[in-house]
TrEMBL record:
Naturally occurring in which organism (per UniProt): Pseudomonas knackmussii (strain DSM 6978 / CCUG 54928 / LMG 23759 / B13)
Top-level division of the source organism's lineage: Bacteria
Residues of the HTH lysR-type domain: 5-62
Keywords: DNA-binding, Transcription, Transcription regulation
Species classification: Bacteria, Pseudomonadati, Pseudomonadota, Gammaproteobacteria, Pseudomonadales
Family: Belongs to the LysR transcriptional regulatory family.
PANTHER family assigned to the protein according to its UniProt record, in alphabetical order: HTH-TYPE TRANSCRIPTIONAL REGULATOR YBHD (PTHR30419), LYSR FAMILY TRANSCRIPTIONAL REGULATOR (PTHR30419:SF2)
Protein name: Putative LysR family transcriptional regulator
Xref: Pfam families: HTH_1, LysR_substrate
GO MF, one example: DNA-binding transcription factor activity
GO CC annotation, single: cytosol
Length: 300
């Protein structure tokens, strides 16, 4: 039996798999739900097998669906590499760099590199998303991202990685707050106070929630905000304490009446690493970005 494959089907199927929903997959693919259902039906009929199991809760992949997804990602990744490598020869070709990083990397370490890179690569679009380090490693392994920046003790076996920079998490509080008296504190002690945090679902919020759960102590969130700047303003106003990267503290403390103390837990000092399946196997524009990032922090 001859099997016919279509790039649009690959992209559509990936979007459905990542959202576990035909409707959301259709939205991501800019297709109507009836058109999406029809394409999936035709795909399954052509292959002679079911790729999705449908239920009121959404869709799940069959074993065949998981195999199709794996190869769809590989094929689209290869096409991105081809596009990138041909970009230097043909005007107007576009490239997409799929980059994953945690909260600190996105807010503190990536902006200066991204800004300079896009000036010299105007035809490249960076799809940058925030994820936890464990999730980033999994996405790099399965080919759904080109590059990832991870931190902490996450296991990167099977990937290539390059150390970038080390960072410490610290506690900030309004001047005169009792937590600042000793100049250093364990997370367990800090948990007796209410926190100001980024929104639920942000990588740092999930990370701290897991750390608190490991101690069997609730993390009390008094205020949730959408940006690092808002955290500092809320802390200064007395809404609670917060845990922030030292780089963010140095950048944002300004004239605000905020103090800081060292967080003593071993996980508070984190080394950031740039990861890829194979740096030499990246598209030309992705290799350029990796080189720019490594050069920036190697010189720092």
């Amino acid at each position: 039996m001859a099997m016919h494959f279509d790039i649009t089907d690959f992209r559509l199927f990936i979007n459905i798999a990542e959202t576990s929903s035909l409707t959301r997959g259709a939205e991501r693919s800019f297709l109507s739900v009836p058109a999406t259902s029809n394409r999936i039906k035709n795909l399954e009929d052509n292959l002679g097998m079911r790729l999705l199991e449908r239920s009121p809760q959404g869709v799940t992949l069959t074993n065949a669906g998981r195999t199709y997804l794996q190869h769809a990602r590989i094929i689209l990744s290869q096409l991105e590499m081809l596009t990138g490598d041909l970009q230097q020869y043909a005007e107007g070709l576009k490239g997409q760099l799929r980059l994953l990083a945690n909260t600190t990397a996105i807010t503190e370490y990536l902006p200066p590199v991204v800004g300079e890179y896009l000036k010299t690569h105007p035809d490249v679009h960076i799809d940058m998303r925030e994820r936890l380090s464990d999730d980033i490693v999994r996405c790099i392994r399965d080919g759904s991202a080109d590059l990832g920046i991870v931190s902490g003790s996450v296991v990167t076996d099977g990937l290539q990685s390059v150390p970038l920079v080390s960072s410490r998490l610290m506690v900030i509080a309004p001047e005169g707050h009792p937590i600042l008296e000793g100049g250093e504190v364990h997370f367990k002690e800090a948990l007796q106070y209410a926190f100001v945090s980024l929104l639920e679902g942000s990588a740092i919020h999930v990370f701290l929630s897991r750390a608190a759960a490991a101690l069997h102590i609730p993390l009390t969130i008094r205020v949730q905000v959408a940006s690092s700047d808002a955290i500092f303003r809320m802390v200064e106003a007395g809404a609670g304490i917060a845990i922030v990267p030292q780089a963010g503290f140095e950048r944002l403390k300004g004239s605000q009446k905020i103090g800081s103390c060292k967080l003593l837990d071993p996980w508070a000092v984190r080394t950031f690493q740039l990861c890829a399946q194979d740096f030499d196997g990246l598209s030309a524009f992705a290799r350029d970005f990796a080189d720019s990032l490594i050069d920036c922090y190697r010189a720092a």
